[in-house]
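#onboarding

Welcome to the new folks! Below is a worked example of what a typical request in this channel looks like: someone posts a single protein sequence, and someone else replies with the predicted structure as tokens. Don't worry about understanding the tokens yet, we'll cover that in week two.

Example request:
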Amino acid sequence: MNTDINIVISEWSYLAAAVLFVLGLRALSSPATARRGMFLAEIGMALAVVGTLLYTQVLTWTYILIGGAVGSTIGALMAIFMPMTAMPQRIALSHSFGALAAVLVGCFKYIEYGGEGLGRLRMTALGFEVLFGALTVTGSLMAFGKLQELIRGAPITYRGQNIFNVALFFATVGLFLYLLWQPDAVWAFYTMMALGFAVGVLLVMPIGGADMPVVISLLNSYAGLAAAATGIAIDNKVLIIAGSLDGTSGFFLSILMSRAMNRSFANVLFGAVGAAPAAGAADKAEVRTVIRYTPEDAKLMLESAGSVIIVPGYGMAVAQAQHIVYEMTELLMERGANVRYAIHPVAGRMPGHMNVLLAEAGVPYEQLFEMDHINDDFQNTDVVVVVGANDVINPAARYKKHSPLFGMPILNADQARHILILKRSMGAGFAGEDNELFYDPKTMMVLGDAKQTLTHIVQHLKK
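Example response:
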């Protein structure tokens, strides 16, 4: 009788969890409701865990409690000690952990059935789970290494790379198809898994930092698909629902990000954006000079501005300057200036990176504008303040056909009356393309740590 009650409670928990997942995902579509969406999803996941423990016959609680304690400790430490600037790296690690769990479950179920007891449907789920889980594990670790600068951020390429990668991928898929007819071929199962790990490394290796936001969302999709396949393999309904939501949302987000960059999936996966510029271009950039300005000069321009647009980028995240940016915004608004933030879809290292940082600093949602909603306003703006952005304001994307940025929609910062750029150095962005906006007569370049520069500007504005 108790077992029947547990099953009923479990089924209702799964239903409630599925509803909360959908509501949470819907709320994440707006910055104003994103926190509520995360809270709903957290409750849904807690109900899913409880429902699973009630539905499944637990042989021993020891390993479950140990695993829960270890996982909770790791998650808490990551949340407490990893700064918001490292959020993309944390997301990449989370993808890796989730995919690794799918691979381990797949291996355990394959060992449990010994291959012989697997039907074609279950073998399809197990193979899909292990294949996509394996490439997500190593692909996410590669993304983490590039984001954390443990591995060179620029693409790592070699002759015949695309042909080799495609051949390796099809060889892995071929082993997967072979297992559908010969599920007891243990050698094929583990060879497929090993090749899946290799595919993940080789998939991300040639991708540069300019495309990393799309890569992260694509890996999120892979991890969700692996989780959904795991749910089919172990007959867990809520895991199928959660994995399907994760996989499809990540896939559509990848499409939207690719469109925002005017690039196809094939370009993202094989385009090697981020390669070093050609020698001729580098030589041309070296002979060009800019006039360096001081924070005092910047203050004089800002205090007379009636309209200001702030363009945040990864440099703001590195300098952790989001709080001082907002303090400057408040001072300018007290002087009567109309201040807004222009958010490019791929600014930073992951989708929504700038939104998260600015929300942490307390910037009101109504001051944040997407590119499509603010791009036409730059021509009527007195001053554009660029804080650590580069590729997303580079005019080369409009006319330089040989540039890796060509065709990518950019913010029209060059159309403003004056341009104030705060940057650590004159170095190029992740795409390796020198930014001609630096040499525009309307541009004031203030080099140095963005947080220190903004602190000086704020101090002068207060005086």
